[in-house]
User: Fold this.
Amino acid sequence: MLSGLLHKDSELQRVLFPEGPELKVCSRSGHIGIMGGSASHLSKEQLSEYQELTFLTKQDILHAYRIFTELLSKELDDFQNTRVSKDRICEMPELKANPFRERICLVFSTAAEKDGSISFEDFLDMLSAFSDSATLEIKSHYAFRIFDFDDDGTLDKEDLKKLVNCLTGGTSDTQLSEGEMNQLIQNILEESDIDKDGTVNLSEFQHVISRSPDFVSSFKIVL
Amino acid sequence: MESNVHRCKVRMSGLSSLHPVIASMNPAAYEGLPMSIELDNDESDDEEQDEETDNDDSVVEPQNSKKTAQRNRNGKRKTEQESEERSEASEEEKEEKSRKKNVQNRTKSTNRNNSDGAEEEITKNRKNRRNVRSKKEDSDVEESDDESVALSMTAVDSRLSDFTDKGSIVGQQCKELLTVPVPFFQRVGEGGAVVQVCEEPAPRPHIRTLGPEELQIPQPPLLLIVHQPQGRVHVGLMETCLMALGCPVSLEKAPDPAQRLRGSREAFLTTAVVGAMKRLQQSPGGPDGTLWALLPGQADENQAPEGVHVAEACILEAERDWRNPGPDLPRLMEVGEEELAGDKGRDIRNDDPLGGGLMGVHRQKGPTHKVHIKPNKGAQYLTDFSLYGASKESSIFVLKRRYKIMYQLSPVTCSNSEEESEEEEIITEEDMAKLKEEVEEKKKLIATLRNKPSPMKQKLQLLKEAQQFVEKFEGALGKGKGKRFYAYKVMMTKKWMKFQRDFENFKTACIPWEMKIKEIESHFGSSVASYFIFLRWMYGINMVLFGLTFGLVMIPEALMGKPYGSMPRKTVPKSEQTSAMNFATLWDFGGYAQYSVLFYGYYNNQRTIGWLKFRLPLGYFLVGIGTIGYSFMVVIRTMASNANEEGGGDDTSFNFSWKMFTSWDYLIGNAETADNKFASITTSFKESILEEQENRKEGNIHLTRFLRVFANFLVLLTLAGSGYLIFFVVRRSQKFAQEGLDDYGWWERNEVNMVMSLLGMFCPMLFDIISPLENYHPRIALQWQLGRIFALFLGNLYTFIIALLDEINLKLEEEKIVRYNITIWEKNLYNGTWLENSTSHPPLDVDPAIVPRGPCWETMVGQEFVRLTVSDTLTTVITILIGDFLRAVFVRFINYCWCWDLEYGFPSYAEFDISGNVLGLIFNQGMIWMGAFYAPCLPAINVLRLLASMYLQCWAVMCTNVPHERVFKASRSNNFYMAMLLIILFLSTLPAVYTIVSIPPSFDCGPFSGKDRMFDVIQETLDNDFPAWFGKAFTAATNPGLILSFILLMALAIYYLQTTSESYKAANLELKKKLQNQSDENKKRNKRNATAAANQMEELQNSMQKANQRATGGDMDKKPNGVNSSNEHSAHGAYPPNGRGMRLAAPPRVAVTRPPGPRGPGQLPGLPRYPGPQQYHGAHPRMPRGGTAYR
Assistant:
């Protein structure tokens, strides 16, 4: 909500209401108090199973549950099977500014229709992969899938192009010229494409990523 | 008709190639498919008998599908009429129908009179019976020669024969199964599909998807339901079903028995089944049975037609996964408990209303399945065999069971429970070991499941399975007492795990400001957040320091020490009393503040205080040492752990790729930050391209050099100037102090602090102006900048300290004079009588406020540091308020009436200055470490300061700052901060230790007064509180010789460790290289293997096709090889599980889901196990269980 406002307005509001209503973003994340009625839908077993299966703590899961039900904003009886549409997920403040938000939804969605809608378990999967304690292995795997725009299992030139466009914001003033783009992609392939097949596959990708000092700390989304 | 013959031929050829016994079955039965059904009297007799005994059913020829079906129906169905007839020669259809009805009626009423024209059948029945018998014998022979073959083969055979004897409809069922069309085994949506194969004759063979209501239509006597909730086919189940149905198709293609029992079984099965199905589907007449595809969720028993007798199984794994199996997941396609609940609830054996041949797959506790086959109503015969499934171990059980079944498959009755109990007992030691291993493996699986990038549903499934498995078999381990102990151990482990997890949760819940920091993180990215995390960390350290000083020094002195006013050092001197409570004095930490527990001078040198006999001087000394020691420990430990995390950022060979793949900070949740990030990424892309292009082009190197030297010269000048300024100011302030502060105003009093703060504020700006001269890369420039600020602060601090030392010396001089004066004063007081025995202190009855006292340099030092800290805090606050807040307010509101855009123009909003803030924090901490010994209140003040700045800066950053453009990676700088902190810690302890060790303490204030040196307190304690020998030993241990040699030893150890670590580093690098090579090699090999496997598959297909051609007369030629294409399809649709280039080698990879079998060396041609380290860095999320050398 907070970040959703344009800078000017948020600035104004911040100045006027330093602890004002728009800062409720942080207050919604109180840990303990959320075990109330709605949280009872998560049984203890489920909680412990989710803890077993994700890198999230109990608080994280409950928090995720809260946010998810907020996103659902419907009756909560069947939240396990209800899906939140891609658009709603992308509207989340944490994902709003992310150029890969649609890819993230698509990658983590298990919906049969491939519409990127997210169920609660998908949501947990996502948070787990983006959590602090997730391993490099799992992070790089998902990063690869996010970057693999056409889902063909390799990063080819088209994928890389799209990736560069995503990273540069896609606006005209930040976009790279054609020549720069080609140069860049060529350089990347020179570095990463070990088997010289013109694409970067998962293992090559992970090889590159595993040496990067920044990846684990930046491939992170916190609710 | 024609098609039927064809099909039969197929089967026959398969049979004959595989099994001579089966082949020897009467081919005539196939050839001469009956046009009509005729029941003879004998048959009827049999049936009658069966009905009466309620045990068996009519004898049916297994190979004669039509008849079998009808017979079966006759036998099974007591109820209504058949709905439809099979597709036969059209003119016979009606006739048949009527006959059938007749038969049924007859069956119901046990009336055998209406059998007409059954002669033909009789002969066939007889023939077939003979065949069956011979087959049985042969199967017995077979058992003896090859066990593994026998395992499955004889099971099938004997079952076949049993069914035959009992009049089951095995052959028919088998045929019907094969008529399942391919598409139904492929993915049907996400939810899957249920394929029902039913024998019910329909007017036309057809395949359709049923709604629930439609299900009520037919009443098939036999129905095979295969659930496919996720589009996966349970191969083991299929095989079981096939075997149960007596269908040998699955086995006929297996090249060798051993392999059949391992992984390839599935592949063959699948190919065989699918192929056969295709074949049958293609055949002109179409399949005889009706194929029902149920929608997901409709497969429960309630909805199934009444009287359905079913082999029911749920298949939960995706098709692609048994073709391309994840290596370390046991490919358990398990029947969910709930899904078969209905099965359990109903005892198929007993309440089967129709008495038909029935099959059910039960899921027992644990990962085994049971298929109950009952040929007819009321028959006590029960076959029980488990599926390959959950895991290797469980399948070992399965094998065992099969073994048993093999022998028990004689048509005697045997009860389920008996069998089970027997089976439970035959767990051998070997099995136990294996089981244990398996349990361990499962546990490991549970622990590592979260590392798998598979969707939650799948993981949940696996978890549940594994947990159930562990639960079931954990108890079975161990014997007698050991068992109990084992159970106890397991329980405790569980409890412990739970406790640990709860504790983890609790710990994370306890981390303060987590949400605040996360919010900042999401707005400003990880770099700004790193400052706050650092701040929080500092807060933690200071809390500990505060606890130490507060709990062990201040509280005891305040509670148990002599009260205020009891002695001169605890009393404000008379001359100051008037102004002691003035705010200005207190603000300056003079007056009452000076003569309180806050400062060194207040503490008494009394050896023990209070009823606890707390040794305060010793405590004071040890706390001082402990503060420093603890800080060192924490900083170094954090540095070490950070260094570990950093891993290999060893080379720059992936410059571009890193920029590309890792530069986006996913924490950014603010549109503006995102825009900045976009811009900075673009810039960095462009920069690096330019760099790359102009890598060899060099500018005017001389100019650059000159500029750099010049810039550094300027910086040096600035540093020197600031140093001199501080020195000058300190000197001046000393002069002021000597002359008495009263004559001077606020500025003179706070000159030193203000000058230092101002220098700290403005010099960095100067550096900022200078640094563009150097034309460094931004990152390097930032480091230079940080280094310079560091040097500035350090220089200032040391100038300050040197000035302080000067002052200390002055005070020491002053002290001598004061001491002399005091003697005179005392002499005057007591008329000189005390001179002789001045060793004993006189009980002063004078007011302590008027007793003359020394200058007490320790308190002075403490005061200086406290003042410095406070003024530093104030400067920070004011900077934030003016520099950030007022600026933001101005820019925000004046922007409406200003000539240019203030927000994007000149003043703009402030950026959060990470490096400056971090440096400020670090230097502040340095002052704490330096001054804490002389002002025990310093940690407390610092805690307050950090707390305030946490909230203030959090607020300020969120409401006045804009995300900054400079890329400042958190992970890189983390250890940089720590390194600076360590340096500061060292540098700040130096003067503190120096003063403690080499300057004599004041004679009349502080806990060490009257001693020569402060550390004498240790000697004193040793002498008084420890036995004499201990003191001696200590003295001996502290003699210079020993200490020197000890230091030498330490130096050697450090040198040694250094060398070792370097060699480790080298080895590490070497290993990395090797791994890289290996992975390259592996990749090549994988490719080779993939092609080889693909070839193999093709061969297989070809041979199968050939066989088919032989059998069907070239039917298959018209079809492209569907299996392969479907494989490829699935491989493409599926995400490549590990990108090892194995995608094409689909079928052999099935081997990983291989059934239990012996685990050892049995490898399949298509899937070599790579013993080598093909997984470097554990980079492959899914690895085969074999070859996990690097796990």
